[in-house]
Amino acid sequence: MSTTGVAVFKPQSSQATAPPHQWWRAAVPVAIAVALALLPPPPGLAQHAWYYFALFAGVIAGLVTEPIPNPAVGLVGLTLAAVLSRWVLFSPSDLAKPGFNVVSQSVNWALSGFASTTVWLVGGAFMFALGYEKTGLGRRIALLLVRALGKRTLTLGYATTFADAILAPFTPSNTARGAGIIFPVMNNLPALYDSRPHDPSARKIGGYIMWTTFAADCVTSTLFMTACAPNFLARDFIGRIAHVTISYGDWMRASLPFALPLLLALPLLTYWIFPPEIKRSPEVSNWARTELETMGGITWRETVLGVLVLCAIMLWILGGSFIDPTLAAFLVLSLMLVLGVVTWGDMARNHSAWTTIVLLATLVTLADGLSRAGFVKWFADYTATHVGGLPPMLILMSLVAIYFLSHYMFASLTAHTTAMMPMMLAAGLAIPGLSATTLAMGLAMTTGIMGVLTPYATGAALPYYNCGYLTPAQFWRLGAIFGLIFIAALLGIGVPLLAG
User: Is residue 259 part of a domain?
Assistant: First the structure.
């Protein structure tokens, strides 16, 4: 078994260019944008706002089909919107204002996402994940839990679940955590029991371990605000559109009542729904002990990283009155550099962090353009007209369920959040008697758990889907079953408590 550091999983979908036979990946977004632009705008919506929506819909389609990497899709879409801003972003009344300069206004709007503190907080948190990889602390934590809880298959399920839960508050990418840190460790375990991929023996223990590990990653992505990058994107949209500020404490108060019971029940639920053939696994504990002995004692760099990350979490939770969360992250990153936990070269080569910064900055700006052009207000008024008279709680639950289930149409949590969050917020805010805070938190709580639905729902799903211990049919079936369990917990426990 490998004793090296954390492997970095690179999803196959992030190729630089699409193969020639996949020309449709580029044709579909263009066709959608052009077709919508050629249609007359709906009653009450200005022509320029309809053009912007057509462009925005094309960008979202591009994020799903991915003819080029998603950050490039976002950058191209943002550039087109800024260049065409005279016709798609600004209204005739804007253009008629004395002294209104289209050139300066459009470039200021295009670059506004890069001034978002949320974008840089996510980028900084990605650098924390780099520290886990470089120091080996993430692997050590996982192995310690496996050594302690790995003698029985059920407790091994709890070991991988707790490993993810411990790393989640400090790892803002569920893909980096689930695919890059946890998966390489867990992928080594089934062979100890002659459980082989692409073989009937996969059901001995491999299928159970892999599904439990993946599903736990989805739950922790909702449980902790800092465990999944789209959580920050949702938080930013909620602040801009609903004018609701969500702190780390607010998020925990909303997620704990339903996500923590889900997390604690998850290994047992999988044990019942998708039972392993092997119930006891004493060998895995010995293997983890051997791996830890090979790693040696805790290094100075691991200790320093652990202390610094704990300091960052404390500042995020308790330091809001005297230091901005983004500055807190920058402070800890500076100390990581000064103390030699990572080097600037390591940070400069951190492709995931810089890619995420560009993607989030462009998508935040593009989504903000929906409000800037007037589309969000029109959508809110239109929805209010057609759903008026229904009980607010029924509308709230319907909006949350629709938002969750619509993820079957998306291949990215980020793309889904960008496309749907502004629309659902606008629809709900137009309903008399519906609390903006309850609506915002109900929608935000779906971001991580919706990743369980399909093999393409999130980047973290790819290695588990392709590992060979789960057949495609098993993965889809389990995704549907656990998706229903997750949304039932949110609607049955989380939303009523939010509304109360």
Answer: yes
